[in-house]
């Protein structure tokens, strides 16, 4: 399979690409292709063109969750695809996600559902694991099992005028079964990297994890979650850890030190053959 990083915070190749705080992957697996997330501001369209990716060949669009940095480019991507397009997401994807700092604000999808449908989206709601293409799974809602993955405490939703921690039930990941083992594609891993990987093993029945790619959200979480997750990853015997986006540079640099050649900064323009 192949993953092309269409949008990430940084730019990796001098091709006229644009970096955005956000994420978008082009995923190809055994003759199928899909768009996983759409970045923040629409750079996904021109970046795809520079990278030789034909967005209109997408058989599906998958949203990892409703944050603006993964969905803000969705309308532009749908317009580029130019026809009715299935969009798979958790039913809470339009939840009113908010963050308390550094500026208290709304960080959910910057569109109404109707606006996206007018641009071609046909939403399919996913709560349970779903095999989209043979060997390529959408996680469904990820059970929270570990006691240390408390997530990003700045994130909240309003319920009856009161702030409650954002459950981010809409956090979905992709699991791809390859001959070398499981490839796990994360959006922001708000469900917790360990919870997601253990869920992937259970859903697919494959225990060998070959690669973890995407946003780990280990930058903003607490020290206990960070240390326990790194310990878990070190015990996994991964072939590749391509952490990016909300991993943040300090944590990414530390992971590079631990994993050496098995770590890659999966920045805009990178192509991972897995
Ligand atoms: Fe994100
Ligand atoms: Fe996020």
Question: What topology emerges from the helices and strands here?
Answer:
Layout: E1 2-7, E2 24-29, E3 32-36, H1 43-50, E4 60-62, H2 68-71, H3 74-81, E5 85-89, E6 98-99, E7 105-106, H4 113-118, E8 121-125, E9 130-133, E10 136-138, E11 155-159, E12 162-165, E13 174-178, E14 181-186, H5 193-204, E15 209-215, H6 223-235, E16 240-244, H7 249-259, E17 271-273
Parallel strand pairs: 3-4, 4-5, 5-8, 14-15, 15-16
Antiparallel strand pairs: 1-2, 1-17, 2-3, 6-7, 6-11, 9-10, 10-13, 11-12, 13-14
Bound molecules: fe (ii) ion (2 copies).
3D structure, described in words:
Helices cover 23% and strands 28% of the residues. With 274 residues, it is of the alpha/beta class. The chain has a single domain (2-267), classed as Metallo-beta-lactamase, Chain A. The strands form three sheets. The chain has a seven-stranded mixed β-sheet. Bound molecules: fe (ii) ion (2 copies). One fe (ii) ion (FE2) binds at residues 65, 67, 188, 190. One fe (ii) ion (FE2) is lined by residues 65, 67, 188, 190.
